[in-house]
Amino acid sequence: MLSRQRSIGVRLQPRPLMARLAFTATCFAVATSAVAFEFAVRFDAATHGEAVDGRVLVLISSNGETEPRLQVTAGLEAILVVGVDVEGLAPGSPARIDGSAFGYPIQSLSDLPAGQYWVQALLHRYETFHRADGHVVKLPMDRGEGQHWNRAPGNLYSTPVQVLLDPGEERRIDLVLTQVIPPIAEPEDTTYVKHVEIQSKLLTEFWGRPMHLGAHVLLPEGFEEHPEARYPLMIFHGHFPDDFGGFRVTPPDPDLECEYSERFQLDCYNRIVQQEAYDLYQTWKGPDFPRFLAIEIQHANPYYDDSYAVNSANLGPYGDAITYELIPYIEEKFRGLGEPWARFLYGGSTGGWEALAAQVFYPDEYNGCFAACPDPIDFRAYTLINIYEDDNAYFMEGDFNRMARPGHRNWLGEIDVTLEDWNHLELALGTDARSGGQYDIWQAVYSPVGADGYPAPIWDKLTGEIDHDVAEHWKAYDLRLVLEQNWPTLGPKLEGKIHIYCGDMDNYYLNNAVYLMEDFLESTTDPYYGGEVDYGDRAEHCWNGDHENPNSISRLRYNTFFLPRILERIQESAPEDADLTSWRY
């Protein structure tokens, strides 16, 4: 879901509400002030010898403890982000950022209070894609980092400097990009964890350049000692993993310096994470644990850290590529059973949506999904927006007043981010859904292709005004609606396969869509869905059905929690001639 950025930062005063409402799209081209205050951002040939396309960002913070590029977030802790698109920016030629450039949380540099700030610039590089649909687009290809612009290899950035900034002063501030983010080391194979990558024929054809899919494969205990065994496949969906998460064959590091978890209000949470990872290893090799293959998929793309595992007009046929190219490859290479009754899906948040979506769109290929805290599965509750009936995504409006829609809360309902916050941060980071952010990827997956080749906006990114014509296209990905419209054919294929879990105080209000899905599933009896929908009392994102442990622990136990339940499903549903013995050692 949304928690992909660090929340270290400073509090800068945003513009008053009415001033923000008066700001229009024309301000992108016309300065809001006659004051000639600007940043000039450049790189030299010694740093990068060729002209580049991309997005130039200037990051401004009062906090010099870490680099500003590592402090970017939404809400009260936001630092200032200002950006402009560049095409063919040559070495030595400056990109100019002034009061006409859009910023978050202050929309114009002209309104920045005078003071001492730490300033850093970064160039997020794009490349050109000649897609099979005839469109030519410029996008940031993932380079192994999972679409994090602030640590993407090859991006250029400047050394942070402390500067006295006064927008009332006529001044140009030069920022030189002298640093290049280095490549990311590939993970190494171990006894238990293997890493695979394939070039996808389907995606390569769509994008007009080689495109790859990867996976981290956790092998069962005794894999080498039992060459006759063939295994069920567990597909753990989620955000871009740099390795198989939460698995550790050594005890926790006794010298690990404690880190406090603000989210869970726990000291030394990093040590707890290591202990849970080591406990998974001990459980995994235990005599009574199911002998399964478990995989985490890498399917980062030019818009996000993963594809949402479905076919999309803007991203291409990722659903088909994962289901019909990557999974069969893994099953053949690692002795998978290769049968639909032996394939299962599970995950949380983005992974929860993907698990349910893959089960819905490929009902004959999988034998069950366990979807925890899924991203919105009914677009009448797209977080707190009904995209079919509401006119504005950012505000609830009455005859004489308007109220900002919340975007994030804690378990007590205390709000720290609005939907406008999330989206304006994304707009500052990238136009045309190129921010790598949550709302931009939903738009990229669900929207039709716009006339310019980029995703058609579901709403005006600046004002929040919803385009209901685009919303009609989104119905193809509204999972509750897809089930409702196709239940006579889908229902018999999905009996006993759908399991959904969500905290009733989910930070992103995802429980609201789950309620609507439950209403449909429980009222549909021909056939009855025969699965489970369950809620965690006062549980936040991402509750997974575990009533015995706090969320700080249960989120680390997806494998030990779901895989024994999957074994029960196999025993109940496998066909008579199924291999239920070779892997039960």
Describe the structure using short key phrases.
Rossmann fold; 8-stranded antiparallel sheet; 8-stranded mixed sheet; 3 domains; 12 helices; Immunoglobulin-like; 585 residues; alpha+beta
Overview of this structure, please?
The protein is an alpha+beta fold and 585 residues long. It has three domains: 17-180, Immunoglobulin-like (Sandwich); 193-378 and 478-497 and 558-573, Rossmann fold; 380-476, no CATH class. 23% of the residues lie in helices and 22% in strands. The protein contains twelve helices and 25 strands. It has helices spanning 17-22, 201-207, 269-284, 318-333, 350-361, 419-429, 438-446, 468-474, 479-494, 511-523, 551-554, 558-573, and strands at residues 37-42, 52-61, 80-89, 95-97, 103-104, 115-130, 136-139, 156-157, 161-165, 171-176, 179-180, 193-199, 212-218, 233-237, 293-298, 311-312, 316-317, 343-348, 369-372, 395-397, 402-404, 406-409, 415-418, 498-503, 532-536. The strands form six sheets. Strands 2, 3, 5, 6, 7, 8, 9 and 11 form an eight-stranded antiparallel β-sheet that branches. It has an eight-stranded mixed β-sheet with strand order 12-13-15-14-18-19-24-25, sandwiched between helices. The chain has a three-stranded mixed β-sheet with strand order 4-1-10, with no helix packed on it. Helix 5 crosses helix 9 (479-494). Residues 2-34 have low confidence and may be disordered.
